[in-house]
């Protein structure tokens, strides 16, 4: 394995032999009469074997997978390494980069503010962020001679939640708008999609919002899904409407009520030994892309990106997913209203072009349909999202079923079958253990 420069990777976003540790695997099934302990259910054992094989084949560095139904643990697998080079075992409380699995968290935070009467989903975003008023929309022409037209209407909070704002990401295409983002540093400092030719990234959330306001929109607001900095902008809306920094608001309204004690934007000296090394898939197996010592998560002045810069443990994210499955309730606490959860789980946009099958999208989540299930993508009736580091989860509210996979390897398009294999393995295990093989 080798270390590679952070700027050499344009990561795919979504949809996509050394002995390894297989420890603390808990698959709930019938009791083993010989030992008096719980015997692994076949599907749980198959899940453990499949993930451990991927570690041995150097396709993933390690993984934690958890499946629960109605609060009952059906499977719990931990295998592989925190850091492959040193052979450090992956601990149960390992801290993973959530990347885009930050987005559902920030989306829930927006709905909490709506529940509190501090904003409405049809509010124009310039009510909170004046820099995003009077936007221009790309029409034609190359980067140096772009023709634009005024936006037909304002971007709304709902547009941002469903990624139909017209805002883009710098790394999801090569249109003149994407080129503008790169040239003018309309980005945060992240290893995902950066190149040496890009302009200096924004130093803070306010500066990023200003740069987005200066850039042309890719589409008219409300017309088309474009995966983007929309959720990052929602973080700025949270700050403006709550009067609190984003990290403080999330801690008070989401992390603390959900007992997410190891989730946040920063890695401290005390938690550094639990922070996973970041890897990228390659022909050789796995290459280091982000050593923990030099990670931007160590920088307390980093841009607070609620769309892709949160880190946390499997246990913490399981609490978040369980809250979603319970219509906004966690233990005896109503974190977000049932009405808001239902709105988040309703279709508001359609993702096209990522696969042969269009994908329904709600407020912060993709929505499983019979068509996505038939294409071996997302099970029907589920809400789900994932992160660039191959973290993945889904919730099936009707079955009160939660499945979660945490790992730490970015998988570019040439190796996307690894991502598909990981998700399909978890999906199949979850429904087999829930008593539904399809």
TrEMBL record:
<dbReference type="InterPro" id="IPR001466">
    <property type="entry name" value="Beta-lactam-related"/>
</dbReference>
<feature type="domain" description="Beta-lactamase-related">
    <location>
        <begin position="48"/>
        <end position="423"/>
    </location>
</feature>
<feature type="signal peptide">
    <location>
        <begin position="1"/>
        <end position="18"/>
    </location>
</feature>
<dbReference type="InterPro" id="IPR050789">
    <property type="entry name" value="Diverse_Enzym_Activities"/>
</dbReference>
<dbReference type="GO" id="GO:0016787">
    <property type="term" value="F:hydrolase activity"/>
</dbReference>
<keyword id="KW-0378">Hydrolase</keyword>
<protein>
    <submittedName>
        <fullName>Class A beta-lactamase-related serine hydrolase</fullName>
    </submittedName>
</protein>
<dbReference type="Pfam" id="PF00144">
    <property type="entry name" value="Beta-lactamase"/>
</dbReference>
<dbReference type="InterPro" id="IPR012338">
    <property type="entry name" value="Beta-lactam/transpept-like"/>
</dbReference>
<keyword id="KW-0732">Signal</keyword>
